[in-house]
Design the sequence.
């Protein structure tokens, strides 16, 4: 017993380690009670997070407004130029659209994508640490959000829901190191898996490409529909670099996500299909 | 500054929750060397250095659990890493000259590395880390240790004063 008292601190440390390991083990097995406790805490803190994030956005907007006023003249000229360019682009797009409609009618192809029911949500928090890329949105199971629901943002796919509580949901972004999405080149149709956290600087890596892959820098990458979570054809990103694997066994491509995942503030959640 | 033990508990818990909420919202926009400082660990480290292993362990587990709840990490993984780190930093208490301004920076640099390695092992065991150790070291561990160490002296100073004030008050009472 005196030995035990002498080593009390190490006994306590060992006890804490064992208890926390048990907790991790339960959580890893998706224990309902652990998830419930997590959900209750997250729901309780969501309003506070919303207030903080709204306040910080307003401050950021005020600061950027002051700095923008200074460069208003140059901004005006640039916007006029952009407007002209956009008008030109709109014409080109309309032509392509018309052509597309005609070609679809010609070959009798069904609509490329099913129509989804989308629901808007606001980002109320981000992972406070450095290991993971997750966000918390202010919609949960009471709004119809379910696990594995696909989350979209301006540009394309942002990620998928991995955990849902009553009023919030946690979204695993495609740039997270744990994310893996079935993907393919939009033009080349080369199929691979888009892994997050592998390219550095928020980029992702399209791996398991065949040796014969013809995917090139600049090509868009879309979901392949394989895996059953992400529907086929949703935009993911753009290829910036293609590299041969060691020993020429295959290729991989570095992909820049089209969504600005570090600054996304509003998202759309696919909650169902319309028909 | 007179701070009772119960008030101190509230201050530390409030500080942890506060920095976590800030890290998940406002501070999240700002990164240094590609990472955000681990301010919860700075609070845990400061308490551990000032009060010893027991409080280091308890506050490490508390802060880690809060972080587990508010982040995408596996519940218990951050708590284990921060609890053990708080314990180790607390062992230093009483053996170093606390007023040395380099102490919090050096201690938190080492503490962050310990915390991150433990997290890598704990979360990695349950398949929650896909990076290799070298990748994690390069991307998160070393940059985070540097950035957290840079922030450490400011928070440490506040927490050290908090505890010094309590001890001084207790001494005054015992004399009186």
Sequence:
């Amino acid at each position: 017993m005196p030995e035990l008292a002498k080593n009390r601190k190490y006994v306590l440390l060992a006890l804490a380690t064992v208890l926390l390991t048990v907790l991790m083990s339960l959580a890893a097995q998706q224990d309902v009670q652990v998830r419930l406790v997590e959900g209750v805490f997250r729901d309780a803190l969501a309003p506070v997070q919303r207030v903080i994030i709204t306040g910080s956005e307003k401050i950021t907007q005020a600061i950027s407004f002051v700095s923008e006023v200074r460069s208003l003249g140059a901004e005006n000229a640039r916007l006029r130029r952009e407007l002209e360019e956009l008008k030109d682009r709109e014409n080109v797009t309309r032509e392509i659209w018309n052509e597309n409609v005609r070609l679809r009618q010609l070959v009798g192809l069904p609509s490329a994508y099913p129509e989804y029911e989308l629901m808007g949500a606001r980002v109320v928090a981000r992972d406070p640490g450095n290991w993971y890329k997750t966000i918390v949105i202010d919609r949960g199971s009471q709004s119809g959000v379910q696990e594995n629901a696909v989350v979209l943002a301006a540009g394309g796919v942002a990620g998928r829901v991995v955990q849902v509580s009553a009023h919030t949901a946690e979204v695993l972004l495609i740039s997270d190191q744990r994310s893996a999405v079935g993907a393919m080149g939009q033009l080349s149709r080369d199929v691979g898996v888009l892994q997050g956290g592998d390219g550095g600087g928020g980029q992702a890596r399209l791996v398991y490409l065949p040796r014969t892959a013809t995917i090139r820098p600049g090509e868009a990458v879309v979901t392949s529909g394989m895996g059953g979570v992400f529907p086929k054809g949703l935009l993911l990103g753009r290829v910036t670099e293609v590299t041969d694997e060691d020993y020429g066994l295959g290729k991989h491509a570095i992909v820049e996500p089209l969504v600005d995942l570090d600054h996304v503030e509003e998202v759309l959640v696919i909650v169902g299909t319309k028909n | 500054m007179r701070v009772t033990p119960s008030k101190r508990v509230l201050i530390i818990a409030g500080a942890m929750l506060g920095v976590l909420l800030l890290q998940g919202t406002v501070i999240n926009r700002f990164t240094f060397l590609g990472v955000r400082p681990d301010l919860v660990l700075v609070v845990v480290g400061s308490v551990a250095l000032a009060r010893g292993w027991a409080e280091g362990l308890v506050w490490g587990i508390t802060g880690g659990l809060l972080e587990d709840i508010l982040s995408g990490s596996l519940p218990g993984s951050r708590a284990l890493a921060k609890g053990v780190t708080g314990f180790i930093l607390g062992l230093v208490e009483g053996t170093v000259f606390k007023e040395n301004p380099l102490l919090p920076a050096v201690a938190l640099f080492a503490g962050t590395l310990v915390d991150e390695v433990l997290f890598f092992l704990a979360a990695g065991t349950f398949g929650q880390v896909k990076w290799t150790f070298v990748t994690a070291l390069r991307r998160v561990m070393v940059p985070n240790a540097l950035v957290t160490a840079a922030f450490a002296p400011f928070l440490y100073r506040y927490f050290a004063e908090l505890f010094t004030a309590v001890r001084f008050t207790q001494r005054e009472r015992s004399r009186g």
Notes: Chain A is about 35% helix and 30% strand. The first helix of chain A runs from residue 2 to 6.
